[in-house]
Amino acid sequence: LAVQLSANRTKVIDMVQAVYDHITSTFTYHTDGGSLQTCAAVLDSDRGDCDDQSVVLISILRAMGIPAWLEMGVLYNQQTNTGFGHGWANVYIPRNGGGEPLIGQIDVVNDYFLIRDPFRLTDYVDNGNGDDLDEYYTVLHGGSLDYSYKSKSFRDSGEIWLDKETV
After folding, report:
1. What does pTM read for this prediction?
2. Distances (CA, A) of 68 to 23, 123, 167
3. What pLDDT digit, counting tens, does each position of 14-70 carry?
4. CA max distance for the chain
5. CA 159, CA 151: separation in Å to the nearest integer?
6. Residue 162 · residue 151 · CB < 8 Å
7. Strands 47-48 and 28-29, how do they pair?
């Protein structure tokens, strides 16, 4: 799939866009519970939740030689004043002529391409250690700790302050 989507493309941004377009047009959002699916399972079923689809995007980008990694946390809903667990991808895009690269964020299930809205709160950033990711999932889905988030205050300027409470 990486070879197919990168065919006739020479710019990293074009390859990233092709992978994003493929995933957003092919996969259906569906949650099967708290465990992370394998890429093969998501590719076979054409469905997965936010982190499942993000991991497929990341895997395809990495197969193209483009650095990408998972980030997870809380997505705040301004209308309901609540937050819920969410996952998205980060990608490294070099700039023409050098200079600082773009570290772009991609949220395939919410249709955000290289945009980070102010309603994301990071709990976990992939560090390459699968045991750390497994521990993160254990804490969220069956470990001894569980956190809920409530808005303490909100201003339209984009600042969000949260209290973290153990449930």
Report:
1. 0.78
2. 15, 17, 33
3. 999 999 999 999 999 987 655 677 888 889 999 999 989 999 999 999 999 999 999
4. 51
5. 11
6. yes
7. parallel
Rounded (5°) CA angle 28-31-35: 125
φ and ψ of 95, to 5 deg: -95, 150
Cα–Cα distance between 69 and 55 in angstroms, integer?
8
Here the tokens at position 160 are: 């969000």
> Which residue has 């997965």 as its token pair?
48
Dihedral, CA of residue 104, residue 138, residue 23 and residue 10, to nearest 10:
40
CB 108 within 8 A of CB 27: yes
Asked if residues 106 and 57 have their Cβ atoms less than 8 Å apart, the reply is yes
Residue 123 main-chain phi, psi, to 5 deg: -105, -35
Instruction: Output the CA torsion sign for 158, 48, 63, 136.
Output: positive
Q: Which pairing describes strands 112-113 and 47-48: parallel, antiparallel, or unpaired? A: unpaired
